[in-house]
Every structure is written in structure tokens, then in C-alpha cells.
Task: structure prediction
Amino acid sequence: MLNKTGEKAIALALGGGAARGWAHIGVLRALDEAGIRIGMIAGTSIGALVGGCYLAGKLDELEEFARSLTLRRIVTLLDFAVGGSGLFAGLRLSNRMRQHLEGIDIENMDRPFIAVATEIATGHEIWIHSGSLVTAIQASYALPGIFEPVLCNGRTLVDGALVNPVPVSVCRAQEAPMVIAVNLQQDLYGRSAVIKHTASEEGQEADGKNRKQQRSRIGMTKVMVEAYNIIQDRITRARLAGDPPDLLLLPKLGDIGLADFHRAGEAIELGYLEAKSRMGELVRLREVLT
Result:
């Protein structure tokens, strides 16, 4: 794959991970600082948001917005959708995006960009490579049950992480000579495990109230999101095993939760540190592969 200047291009696959995705900003800052030019980006979910803003020249605005978020401000951006197909309509977030990205079409940006979404009716993996950047980003992060699906050219689209959480395959399809991927989920579940367990009825009646209280404390939304992310983690492992990138960045995000959007500063710094620590390896690979 050649970029628009005729140079062999490095492709970047930015994975999903909700609030942990602010780490992508730090990764991009480190790459820019080192003079590593990215020729194209494929993004899923928040990876599409960060990648799209970067290629549109709006990363500064996105970082300013991310760092400004507090718990109180996050609440003001969430508009409950009564009777809708998602908990939040997402209109306030969309309006905020449109302030900076309105009128930008993907095909008019100086480097290729692909946002991954999922068609809810068929399960098809959808690669949005042209048209409205705002719509593409919205579709890619429309987490089922949380944000309402996005209607796009007759297709009803939801979060791309359902089918391709870290879109290395999208970059490979563009014939990029080198693919860098960022996986935000690696340290959430470790290697996971299979555990043999015994089901016992002993003490169930006595423990019933405590279990009910525990479920109540977890909350329906948290259960949905955590279940979704376990699925996403397993899909990521399977897909990366079959189609690994040339360099896989794994920001060590520790206890930054999927809903901790107010911790952008920490996530950005950790993404930056991971990219900086792998820069020597990246440079050597670039010399060999491109």
C-alpha cells in the first residue's frame, strides 16, 4: 500500500475499549514525536473516534475535551432515551463531535481511514471507508444496549467490537507493509482460565439476600458492559492469533475502568509510555518491512 505521497505506508489498527481508549491519544503523540508517519488508520469503537479525529487534524481538540471530563460533566453529556433501543440517545455527544467534524468526508482526508461497525440484522462486519466521518465514528462506537444504533444507507449499525475489536485484518486488506496494533484489553483479564467448580445448594437460602444485594450493587449496566467486554476480549485473542500485527502495543492501563472517561490524563500518559518503550523495536521493524 502506498500513501498519497507515493511512500510505503505504515498502518495503525486502534482497538476498542471505551474509556481506556484515551490511551490511543498518547500512542499517537509518541509516534508523532518520533517522526513516525502513519499512512492509514483502521479503528473500532473509541479507536475509530481517536483515529478519525487524528487524521482530520482534530486530535488537539479531542484531547482537550477528554482532559476536561469530570464525573459531573459526563452526566450532563448523557441523554437518556426513553423507549429507545439504547439507554442513551447520544445526541449530546454527537452534537459535540459535529462542532469540530461537521462536513468532513472520509475520502477527502489526506490519508485513508476505515471505521469498523457491525450490521445488527445480519452480523456483517462493515468497513466504512467513505462518507461522513461523524456518522462513521458514531456507528463504530454504538455499544448495543447503551447507545442507540445508527442508521446508515439502509443498514442499522452498532459497535464494531462485536466482530473485530482490533482491526488488524482491515489494515492487511489495504496491503500495508507494516501494521501496528493497539490492544487496550490485554490486562483486564490476563490469560483468563478454565476453572473446575462445584455447585452446592448448601447455605443457598441464607445467602440469598446477600447475593441479591451483590447483584444490585453491580448494576444492570455494569453487568452488560462487563459481559460484552469478556466477549470482546475472547474475540480479540482469536483474531490476533490468526492475523497478528507486526507490532502489538499493550498499554498497561491497570485499574482504569471502561467507564472511567474522567481519567483521560492517566490513560493518555500510559499510552504514551507504552509507545515510547517500544519505539526502538518499531524503528527496526520499519527498516526491515518498509
